[in-house]
């Protein structure tokens, strides 16, 4: 497959392998010698594992959305490699859940991606035939499943819901019967509107992707589209359905290269990364007026599939993410609005290739949620409080 979708909901060993291959779909979801900066040391890491999480390589606790109240959702992979959803309250208490119809085989099950201030969760489940479906879990625990019109019903096809905003609207993407990717918006009343960015390709594994974390309060959606050459480009879709497309400065134009969006905040600021002509990742932030600032963490490597990968931008413009260093170890980072970068390494994070820490969510209070892969390749969650 000649494209990639990075989300926070992906087991790190497979995620890192996908990044190395440049072309795989990751459904979901990187100064080590310098250690933590003084400001990072002043913060308090709380590490956690969802009850039932497996302890083998490629298993453990995966992180999805973080809401303003400090609760987060995600999934855990059990000892049989089945996915189960969870909600973790700020006090550390867990609620686990499975969507009706979720499969119980390896690689199947339920994953929570988005969590709004009211406590509603959206995400995807994979059934016994390996077809994807969306779900909405209300605060009270009731689960509604749904499929975008036109979603395919073959293995690896179907509907992936990634975002839920405060009003309860949900955005995501789906694969049709020809494996073309399309975006969708599900309104609060359940009505689903599908869309394609201008310039999106119409062959298998081309099309329009909505980024996890990129549906804001105003109803705008951001993501990337894959053109007929399998090159990626960014877009913002306004509430009225109009599109603005863009490319980050320096983005490569080859297959699998280009511009990728990870999140959008309430002000319309987007964050993401570009993959350049020599397959190095660079971070960027795009203001609502269209101006783009690129950045690289000082510890980021400059080899193929190394570099800086932003994940979430909060309303204040602070960005959480990860970078891969020259040894392919990944480290979390926090970039303040003024451009100051702080490295974040969770206690217990492994220091081998494709191990380390990823900061994945950053709420209005400046609290961060993320995950780390230990020396055995097991994934664990962390919550980082402000000092």
Q: Could you describe the 3D structure shown?
A:
The chain is globular, with a radius of gyration of 18 Å. The longest helix is centred in the N-terminal third of the chain and has 10 residues, at 12-21. It is mainly β. It has 2 helices and 28 strands. It has one domain (12-385): Methylamine Dehydrogenase, Chain H (7 Propeller), CATH 2.130.10.10. Mean pLDDT is 90; it is low at 1-11 and 17-42.
Question: How do the helices and strands line up, and which of them pair or pack?
Answer:
Blueprint: H1 12-21, H2 38-41, E1 44-48, E2 60-66, E3 72-77, E4 83-88, E5 94-97, E6 109-115, E7 121-126, E8 132-137, E9 143-146, E10 158-164, E11 170-175, E12 181-186, E13 192-195, E14 207-215, E15 221-226, E16 232-237, E17 243-246, E18 258-264, E19 270-275, E20 281-286, E21 292-295, E22 307-313, E23 319-324, E24 330-335, E25 341-344, E26 356-362, E27 368-373, E28 379-385
Antiparallel strand pairs: 1-28, 2-3, 3-4, 4-5, 6-7, 7-8, 8-9, 10-11, 11-12, 12-13, 14-15, 15-16, 16-17, 18-19, 19-20, 20-21, 22-23, 23-24, 24-25, 26-27, 27-28
């Amino acid at each position: 497959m000649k494209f990639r979708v990075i989300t926070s909901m992906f087991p790190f060993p497979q995620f890192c392998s996908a990044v190395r291959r440049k072309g795989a779909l990751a459904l979901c979801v990187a100064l080590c010698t310098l250690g933590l900066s003084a400001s990072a040391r002043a913060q308090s890491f709380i590490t956690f594992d969802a009850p039932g999480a497996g302890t083998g390589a490629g298993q453990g606790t995966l992180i999805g959305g973080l809401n303003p109240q400090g609760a987060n959702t995600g999934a855990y992979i059990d000892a049989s490699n089945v996915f189960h959803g969870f909600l973790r309250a700020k006090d550390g208490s867990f609620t686990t859940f499975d969507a009706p119809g979720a499969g119980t085989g390896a690689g199947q099950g339920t994953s929570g991606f988005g969590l709004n201030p009211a406590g509603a969760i959206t995400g995807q489940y994979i059934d016994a035939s390996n077809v994807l479906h969306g779900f909405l879990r209300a605060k009270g625990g009731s689960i509604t499943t749904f499929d975008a019109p036109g979603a395919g019903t073959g293995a690896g096809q179907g509907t992936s819901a990634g975002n839920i905003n405060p009003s309860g609207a949900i955005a995501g993407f789906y694969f049709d019967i020809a494996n073309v990717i399309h975006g969708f918006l599900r309104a609060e009343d359940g009505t689903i509107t599908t869309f394609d960015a201008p310039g999106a390709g119409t062959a298998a594994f081309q099309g329009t992707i909505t980024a996890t974390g990129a549906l804001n309060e105003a109803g705008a959606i951001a993501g990337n589209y894959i053109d007929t050459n399998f090159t990626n480009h960014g877009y913002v879709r306004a509430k009225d359905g109009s599109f603005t497309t863009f490319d980050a400065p320096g983005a490569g134009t080859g297959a699998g290269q280009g511009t990728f969006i990870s999140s959008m905040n309430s002000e319309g600021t987007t964050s993401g990364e570009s993959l350049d002509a020599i397959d190095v990742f660079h971070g960027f932030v795009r203001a609502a007026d269209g101006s783009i600032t690129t950045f690289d963490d000082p510890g980021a490597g400059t080899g193929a599939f190394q570099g800086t990968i932003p994940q979430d931008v909060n309303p204040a413009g602070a960005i959480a993410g990860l970078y891969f260093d020259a040894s392919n170890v990944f480290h979390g980072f926090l970039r303040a609005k003024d451009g100051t970068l702080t490295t974040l390494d969770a206690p217990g994070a492994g220091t081998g290739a494709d191990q380390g820490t990823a900061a994945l969510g950053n709420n209005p209070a400046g609290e961060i949620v993320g995950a780390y892969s230990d020396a055995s390749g097991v994934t664990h969650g962390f919550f980082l409080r402000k000092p």
